[in-house]
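Exercise: predict the fold of this chain.
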Amino acid sequence: MASEDATEAPAPPTGCWDVFWTKHDPDQVFAYSTVKLVSIKDRYLGIFHYLAMFIIFLYIVFWVILYQKAYLKLEPPVGAVRLTLVDPSPLPTSEPSYCAAPTVNGCKYWLSSQASSQSDGRSLFITTDVQITHVSRECNDTSISCRPTYGNTTEYFVGNIEKFTMSLDHSPRSPNLGIKFSTEDIAPGVLQTLPDESKPNEWKDKLTFESLASDSLALTDLLDAAHYNLDAPADQYLNLDVSTPSGWTYRPYTADQKFKPYRQFGGVILLMIYYDNHEHGFVANQNIIYYAYRPIIITGIDDFVEETIWTDFPTEQVKLLRRGIRVVAVLTGNLGKFDFQTLLVQLTSAIALIAVSKTVVDLLAVYVLPRRQHYYKAKYEETADFSDLMRQYKLEKAAAKVNGAMGFATGLVPAPDTEALTEEEKYYLSQAGVTLDQSAAIPPTEAEANSIEMHERGTV
């Protein structure tokens, strides 16, 4: 009867999986780790923290998103440009005063087809001065001894050239964003000027074009917006020099030379066509594009075109040296389109500032403010000295060997086998005041045995 009431002992684990779970607590294996927060009840710290977060919130919403429009993916525009010189209508009948300048022989009144030349669609050369030289050969040009004879050179201004107009046609595209605009989608453009060269981003509107078709820009307005005075003196000029292979060379001014203006020297104007569809207002308008002409003088560069006209081939020819203004059009600006990934990247970068504000408040609380010692104790939790814990554990382990039964060393502990102790264990026992004697063995309690076993398994 007694054997029936007795409980059978459970079978010992045999598989690796069963052995693993007998030695490891599932709650410890699958434990969840989280961050512990400390609430410091100080109104001044809290007000400073929330004020910093509010300023960062305003910066993200109004500056990053609304003003800078960080939700847009931007791309520089590409497209086609065509510049054409157009005759004034009606043709002027008065002679300009510069035609009587002593440095020239008067003026030539050319049409636009004579006064302009194009190297490509984005560049237009406008003649303001021309030197005409007659060149003759008395021999056949197949002879190596044949040399040209240069006649007299006459120089003329192109009269009333500033009264001509320039026609501008352009069409911007943004291929990667799928944006393209036709003439009907482009708002009327403006001509802008830069009042102060030391402030390159402060362009001011000078005039607005009313038509949505080709823009017609008077050269007078273009030169005025670029602050380019054709009658201002130049510091050097280009003239005929038969001693050089090309026949032309630079000659610096000397004190005895007469006044020569930029009209006789030439120059380059960089005409930037700035596009945008997102800078007008807080919300980007992706259905209409705005543009502005921004002319800039390229200093230190003149421009000329050399041309040869045969009057009697191959013995008589006329050599023309045209000097003037070269207008070079460049497409600039940015076209934008809403892109969620771009917005996400910008928001992530901006929201990271919140962590910066929290770090600043923590540093002030722990190292600067008068109550920093109290804040430090509230924020940081100091653990026990693990060196002391390890020393106590080694003492317990040595005492267990001495006692012979996994017990703690308390008072007088018998030592059935002192040679089993290491020198380190003997040292810890001596530091604890334990006397190695075999007279009385103290058997371990159940709690002491369990504590040592947990130490051995590493669960404490």
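Check your answer against the key: The radius of gyration is 47 Å.
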